[in-house]
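Because discrete structure vocabularies remain unfamiliar, it helps to consider an illustrative case, giving the amino acid sequence and backbone structure tokens:
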Amino acid sequence: MSQTSRRVVLAERPTGMVDDSTTRIEEITTPELEDGQALVRVGYVSIDPTIRTWMDDAPGYLPPIEIGAVIRSFGIGEVVESRSERYKVGDSVAGMTGWQEYAVADEGLGRMQVLPDGVAPEIALSVLGMTGLTAYFGMTDVGEVKEGDVVVVSGAAGATGSVAGQIAKIKGAAKVIGIAGGPEKCKWIVEELGYDAAIDYKAEDVRRALREKAGEVDLYFDNVGGEILEAVLANLAMRARIVLCGAISQYNAEGERRGPANYAMLIARRARMQGFLILDYGARFAEGQAELGRWVAEGKVKGAQHVVEGLEHTPDALNLLFTGGNTGKVIVKVA
């Protein structure tokens, strides 16, 4: 049975921040299902910095969003109609739904995951979702966090950074320092998440604060790039590891984007800097979710969600990531 569905599409490529001209809302009729497909009513969509990079006409690990196409994003919804053995009416599913009220799930590549009963959508999109898994594999596999490490996390009050620091503590890091923007976020990551110290990049000299609070850094989990990455490079321990998870400070940059001028510190300190994508770990998602789920149940990992109401507010929700207007995972409740 066809439904009318609102969706947010890319109207033109942004320069800098997303604005009213970047997207538009359309109303369409959902397609008739084919064998192996199901119709999903989208309840929540995940708002992630990488969505901004997909809006650019530039090469990346996924192709750019085409003009006129629905904005790509991860989401959670309920199956309301099915012609598939995999999806039953009433199932909660997670996958690439996009910014729209209804999405079609199929059984092919990129198929949606059927969620276990009792998993709250907000938790499924944050700690147990892509951001939590990014923190998990970034810390454990790429960063090889170990007991006694001095760990620094930038974007520490964000969706991924907030979980990454908690994982470092669980794994026995001697000291975990978070870099965040503003006194409230800094207080939150210390008092609520268990960070040993915080650096307010809006009010402190990050390079000097790192020397005072961290000393030499064994492991840096980088979510922002730019000047903060340079500050950490100046404070590396011998054979340090840098995990390149994101570069949010550069995504809205107009003109040439800034890279670390002092990258030669990697040579002097015999350090390594490695990027990764969570898509690399698709075959191991169940492993990561099982570990994260256990830590959540034991109270060792806490998640925070910043929920924005209404599909029409998805562009504003995306901008929160770049203005620092959120604490924790940004999620849009579609209806």
Notes: The mean pLDDT is 94. The domain at 4-126+304-333 is CATH 3.90.180.10 (Quinone Oxidoreductase; Chain A, domain 1).
